[in-house]
Protein backbone atom coordinates (compact mmCIF):
# COMPACT_ATOMS: atom_id res chain seq x y z
CA UNK A 1 0.00 0.00 0.00
CA UNK A 2 1.50 3.33 -1.11
CA UNK A 3 1.50 6.23 1.33
CA UNK A 4 0.21 9.60 0.22
CA UNK A 5 2.88 12.20 1.14
CA UNK A 6 0.26 14.98 1.26
CA UNK A 7 -1.73 13.28 3.99
CA UNK A 8 -0.15 12.92 7.39
CA UNK A 9 -1.49 10.31 9.75
CA UNK A 10 -2.04 11.56 13.24
CA UNK A 11 -1.95 9.13 16.09
CA UNK A 12 -3.48 10.20 19.39
CA UNK A 13 -2.34 8.51 22.58
CA UNK A 14 -4.31 9.40 25.69
CA UNK A 15 -3.15 9.31 29.29
CA UNK A 16 -5.59 9.30 32.15
CA UNK A 17 -4.87 10.57 35.65
CA UNK A 18 -6.01 8.19 38.34
CA UNK A 19 -5.78 7.06 41.93
CA UNK A 20 -4.64 3.64 42.97
CA UNK A 21 -6.73 1.41 45.20
CA UNK A 22 -4.72 2.25 48.30
CA UNK A 23 -5.65 5.93 47.73
CA UNK A 24 -2.08 6.94 46.95
CA UNK A 25 -1.76 9.50 44.21
CA UNK A 26 0.12 8.73 41.05
CA UNK A 27 0.93 11.49 38.60
CA UNK A 28 1.09 10.74 34.90
CA UNK A 29 2.46 13.04 32.25
CA UNK A 30 1.75 14.20 29.69
CA UNK A 31 -2.04 14.10 30.10
CA UNK A 32 -2.65 14.20 26.35
CA UNK A 33 -0.19 13.31 23.63
CA UNK A 34 -0.34 13.61 19.84
CA UNK A 35 2.25 11.52 18.00
CA UNK A 36 2.93 11.13 14.30
CA UNK A 37 2.77 7.57 13.00
CA UNK A 38 6.17 5.91 13.24
CA UNK A 39 7.50 8.22 15.99
CA UNK A 40 8.56 6.91 19.36
CA UNK A 41 7.30 8.45 22.59
CA UNK A 42 7.29 8.02 26.35
CA UNK A 43 5.08 8.70 29.36
CA UNK A 44 6.07 9.25 32.98
CA UNK A 45 4.39 7.90 36.09
CA UNK A 46 5.40 9.34 39.49
CA UNK A 47 4.42 7.66 42.74
CA UNK A 48 5.34 7.80 46.45
CA UNK A 49 8.54 5.77 46.64
CA UNK A 50 8.02 4.92 50.31
CA UNK A 51 4.93 2.84 49.61
CA UNK A 52 6.03 0.90 46.55
CA UNK A 53 5.16 -2.76 45.97
CA UNK A 54 4.70 -3.12 42.20
CA UNK A 55 3.97 -0.86 39.26
CA UNK A 56 1.40 -1.83 36.63
CA UNK A 57 1.01 -0.26 33.19
CA UNK A 58 -2.41 -0.70 31.56
CA UNK A 59 -3.84 -0.03 28.12
CA UNK A 60 -7.52 0.90 27.99
CA UNK A 61 -9.40 1.00 24.70
CA UNK A 62 -12.95 2.40 24.40
CA UNK A 63 -15.71 -0.13 25.21
CA UNK A 64 -13.15 -2.64 26.57
CA UNK A 65 -11.71 -3.49 29.97
CA UNK A 66 -8.23 -2.20 30.84
CA UNK A 67 -5.52 -4.69 29.84
CA UNK A 68 -2.31 -5.15 31.85
CA UNK A 69 0.66 -4.48 29.60
CA UNK A 70 3.59 -4.67 32.00
CA UNK A 71 4.22 -5.26 35.71
CA UNK A 72 7.52 -4.15 37.22
CA UNK A 73 8.62 -4.89 40.77
CA UNK A 74 12.42 -4.51 40.92
CA UNK A 75 14.25 -1.18 41.07
CA UNK A 76 16.23 -0.54 37.89
CA UNK A 77 14.34 -3.23 35.99
CA UNK A 78 13.13 -2.88 32.40
CA UNK A 79 10.26 -4.86 30.86
CA UNK A 80 9.38 -5.13 27.18
CA UNK A 81 6.27 -6.33 25.36
CA UNK A 82 6.35 -5.89 21.60
CA UNK A 83 7.04 -2.22 20.81
CA UNK A 84 6.20 -1.18 24.40
CA UNK A 85 8.69 -1.10 27.26
CA UNK A 86 8.91 0.35 30.76
CA UNK A 87 11.65 1.14 33.24
CA UNK A 88 11.38 1.56 37.01
CA UNK A 89 13.17 3.69 39.61
CA UNK A 90 11.72 3.00 43.07
CA UNK A 91 14.34 5.15 44.83
CA UNK A 92 13.07 8.31 43.15
CA UNK A 93 9.49 7.08 42.62
CA UNK A 94 8.98 7.06 38.87
CA UNK A 95 8.51 4.81 35.86
CA UNK A 96 8.86 5.56 32.17
CA UNK A 97 6.66 3.85 29.58
CA UNK A 98 7.89 3.87 25.97
CA UNK A 99 6.19 3.09 22.67
CA UNK A 100 8.57 2.55 19.75
CA UNK A 101 7.32 3.37 16.25
CA UNK A 102 3.76 4.35 17.22
CA UNK A 103 0.98 2.98 15.01
CA UNK A 104 -2.72 3.94 14.73
CA UNK A 105 -3.69 0.82 16.72
CA UNK A 106 -1.68 2.22 19.69
CA UNK A 107 -4.29 4.95 20.17
CA UNK A 108 -5.73 4.31 23.66
CA UNK A 109 -5.72 5.46 27.26
CA UNK A 110 -2.61 4.35 29.16
CA UNK A 111 -2.72 4.06 32.95
CA UNK A 112 -0.19 3.34 35.65
CA UNK A 113 -0.99 2.07 39.13
CA UNK A 114 1.28 1.47 42.08
UniProtKB/TrEMBL annotation:
Keyword DNA-binding applies: no
GO cellular component, one term: T cell receptor complex
PROSITE patterns: IG_LIKE
Record flagged with keyword Signal: yes
Transmembrane intervals: none
Record keywords, A-Z: Adaptive immunity, Immunity, Immunoglobulin domain, Receptor, Signal, T cell receptor
SUPFAM superfamilies from the UniProt entry: Immunoglobulin
One Pfam family recorded for the sequence: V-set
PANTHER family on file: IG-LIKE DOMAIN-CONTAINING PROTEIN, T CELL RECEPTOR ALPHA VARIABLE 1-2
Protein name: T cell receptor alpha variable 24
